[in-house]
Amino acid sequence: MPIYRTAAVDAVHNDEELQLNLDLQEERRERTAIREAKTKLKTTKYYNARVRGVTFRPEDFVCRSNDASHAVGGGKLGPKWEGPYEVTEALGDGSYKLRPNILIIGLLHKRVATPAATDPVS
C-alpha cells in the first residue's frame, strides 16, 4: 500500500520546484557574498582607524622580533627581541633592510673604561 507522500508526488511539478530552489539558492549566495564584503569592509575600517602606522627611515635603530628569526634560543624565558639593528633601506610595505649595529652592541656588552681609571696616579 503506497503512502500519501509517494502517491501525491507530481514528477513535473517536483522538477519545477527543484529548479526554483536552485535559482533561489544562487540568489541567497549572492546576498551572502555582498553581506560578507560589507562586514569585511566595516571591520577593516574599524581596525585601520585604531592602528598607528609606524615607518622607519634609514639610520633609525630598531629591534627585531626573535619570534620571526629564531636567532636566539632560550625557550619561554628567552629574549623576545634582538638587536639593535640599523635600518639601511626601506623596501616598501613595511619591509626594511637591516644591518646589525656593531658599535652599539659592543658598548652594551663591554664595560667602558673611564678616563680617570686609565690615568696613572702621580
Task: Give an overview of the whole structure.
This protein has 122 residues and is an alpha+beta fold. Helix content is 49%, strand content 19%. The chain has helices at residues 4-7, 11-50, 66-69, 102-109, 115-118; strands spanning 61-65, 81-92, 95-100.
Keywords:
122 residues; alpha+beta; 2 domains; three-stranded antiparallel β-sheet; 19% strand; Reverse transcriptase domain-containing protein
Kindly state the percentage of residues in helix.
Answer: 40-55%
Biggest beta-sheet profile = 3 strands, antiparallel
- The low-confidence parts are 107-122
Strand content: 15-25%
Shape: elongated
User: What's the tally of helices?
Assistant: 5
Number of strands: 3
Number of structural units classed as domains = 2
Radius of gyration over all CA atoms, rounded? 34 Å
Report how far apart the termini are: 125 Å
Structural class: alpha+beta
Assembly of the depicted chains:
single chain
